[in-house]
Amino acid sequence: MNFENLLNNFDMGVCVDQLQRESLVDLVLLFIEMDGVVEDSEMAYAFDWVSSLKWDNDISPINYVKQNLVTARAAIEAGTEQDFILHRSKHLIDSPARTLAVELATGVSLADGHLDDKEASAIEFLKQCVG
User: Is residue 77 scored above 50 in pLDDT?
Assistant: First the structure.
């Protein structure tokens, strides 16, 4: 029985870690779409980072990005960016992941050489969510 609990906890840890990674990717994608223009430099920043991740999902990281870029765009078009950020940030359970979320959001937002007001505001909201 104890061995079974150990395995369940181990599996849960892997799932939690993957959920954090996916939430971080989702947030990066939102910030790529935030200013309404997807720049090559922003995508390069995202793909460089995503390619370095340990990934435990049947969907490859590249396909995950392609699929979820549409979701991020839809959140922006619907005006629900804060809901998106709040939902994804709830899955960031450890301090390094929360810190990384802000670093990545800032990095991808600055990858095109310009931080617009909408991006700056969303970064501030993210800081409040993960604070």
Answer: yes
